[in-house]
Design goal:
Blueprint lengths: L5 E3 L8 H14 L2 E5 L5 H29 L16 E8 L12 H29 L5 H7 L5 E9 L11 E4 L5 E6 L6 E5 L2 E4 L7 E5 L1 H6 L9 E3 L8 E9 L5 E2 L19 E2 H11 L5 H18 L6
Parallel strand pairs: 1-2
Antiparallel strand pairs: 2-9, 3-4, 4-11, 5-10, 6-9, 6-11, 7-8, 7-10, 12-13
Helix pairs in contact: 1-3, 2-3
């Protein structure tokens, strides 16, 4: 099997720009994932984020996680568990409104650091969306504008730790799923692997590379590209030993009232409407997704298409601006 795509973004600034854009295009079309190096986020900042995130887990979350596992009997399971994940998490919201000041148990230095980190990730997310626009032949700013809605995109970070698990064959760190949103940027542990994606029916490891940022495409980009790019199923495998795995995933998603639909430029002239992806409000998609996250994405798209048909029949077509 071909190797996992690792993209050196620094090469966009030189004579290898065309080749680098082609690598990004291939990754989006055939993998739904790629890994960025030389992305512009200072390595020293990433080192501090990793250090303080691991310290926060040890100080504030480890004992709580162990207690919850014990209370649910997950430390002694004997058959496969399909309704829970072996992870310890907290969430930071950045846009449209930040909650960093209100998340409990965070040291002030850590809050300040995560605000700085979020700013860098937001900037990189928007730069990557521009590269996608260029490869897709969409006008500059198209994806950012679609994601903006009436106020702003929805942007937040899930901070996860995957502690050592005594029964990794029976419990996943995170069950298989596709991501609902737009573009996802992941800063992951470079010492402990565990993230896998499904390609051609086989689970493929996403290699841990120091100071890299892993990028994956969510369901909304599949809809906007009318299937040219695909969101890809992925999971986290629990590990038995070591210190556990750190994962910081930032989700640059459409605003709640953003209307999502295939870009007109990406709809084939010969394609019939029934073959195109649906048009819907992002908030409606999220309501459905929250109930069926760990199920196949195709029925979600079909449900939104049915909703679109009903709305058109009852009240006319959804506005796009």
């Amino acid at each position: 099997m071909e190797s996992f795509p690792i993209i050196n973004l620094e090469k966009l600034n030189g004579e290898e720009r065309g080749l680098t854009m082609e690598k990004i295009k291939d990754a989006c079309e055939n993998w739904g994932f790629f890994e960025c190096v030389n992305h512009g986020i200072p390595h020293e900042l990433l080192d501090r984020v990793e250090k303080m995130t691991k310290e926060h887990y040890k100080k504030c979350m480890e004992d709580r996680f162990k207690e919850s596992i014990k209370n649910r009997g997950l430390d002694s399971v004997r058959s496969e568990v399909n309704d829970v994940d072996w992870e310890s998490t907290f969430y930071l919201k950045h846009l449209p409104l930040s909650n960093i000041s209100h998340v409990p148990d965070l040291d002030d230095d850590y809050r300040t650091l995560m605000k700085e980190f979020a700013g860098k990730i937001e900037k990189l997310s928007e730069e990557l969306l521009e590269l996608l626009c260029e490869n897709l032949g969409l006008e500059k700013g198209y994806l950012k504008n679609v994601f903006h809605g009436s106020k702003s995109p929805t942007f937040g970070t899930k901070v996860s730790n995957y502690p050592p698990c005594p029964k990794p064959d029976l419990i996943k760190g995170l069950r298989a799923h596709t991501d609902a949103g737009g573009i996802i940027l992941l800063f992951q542990d470079d010492k402990v692997s565990g993230l896998q994606l499904l390609k051609d029916g086989e689970w493929v490891d996403v290699p841990p590379v120091k100071h890299s940022i892993v990028v994956n495409l969510g369901d909304q980009l599949e809809v906007i590209t009318n299937g040219k790019y695909k969101s890809v199923e992925h999971r986290v495998i629990a590990q038995t030993d070591g210190e556990g795995r750190m994962s910081i995933a930032s989700f640059y998603n459409p605003g709640s009232d953003s209307v999502i639909f295939p870009a007109p430029e990406l709809i084939g002239k010969e394609s019939e409407k029934k073959d195109n992806y649906p048009k819907f409000v992002f908030e409606d998609y999220m309501k459905l997704y929250s109930a069926v996250k760990f199920q196949a994405k195709e029925p979600r798209f079909e449900a939104m298409k049915s909703m679109e048909t009903t709305m058109v029949n009852n009240v006319g077509p959804l506005a796009t601006a």
